[in-house]
Amino acid sequence: MWREGDVLVCTPGADLPPRCVKCNAPADISPRRYIFHWHHPAIYLALLMGVLPYLILAIVLRKRSAHVLSLCAWHERRRVRCVAIAMASIVPLLIGVLWIGGATGWLTGAGVMAVMLLIGRRGSRVLSAQSVDHEQARYLGACDAFLRALPTPPRESRDW
């Protein structure tokens, strides 16, 4: 595991140091295994054919990488809170449809639901996979202090 600028690079199955990846504080809670998925950005072109072809291609062609990493208590609470916001996002849609009714209810409920899903998704993300292959996984989202504590790239990684 090493850093390349603001990118965290890990070999398959590497466990991260027991420090919060978001603030570099000592980990207050036990480390947890996270599974990250990534697919090539060109797969988004399948959206031109519809959502279903995109979903099928994205699921079939995605790469995955699993790592054990830690968060401090504050960042873990924030992550759990954002997951709860995303899970509760169906409530505004139901309220809009059942109590307000009509097109206004649908649009209001769907709009609030979309905002809640976006907040939940962005806030619950620990790291964001930039690329994944059989040799390494590259992530964005680790704080500068965490990255500075990691070694520089191994020699063979720099000779490309």
TrEMBL record:
The keyword Transmembrane helix applies. It comes from the Bacteria. The chain crosses the membrane at residues 42-61, 82-100, 106-124. Keywords: Membrane, Transmembrane, Transmembrane helix. This is Transmembrane protein. It comes from Xanthomonas arboricola.
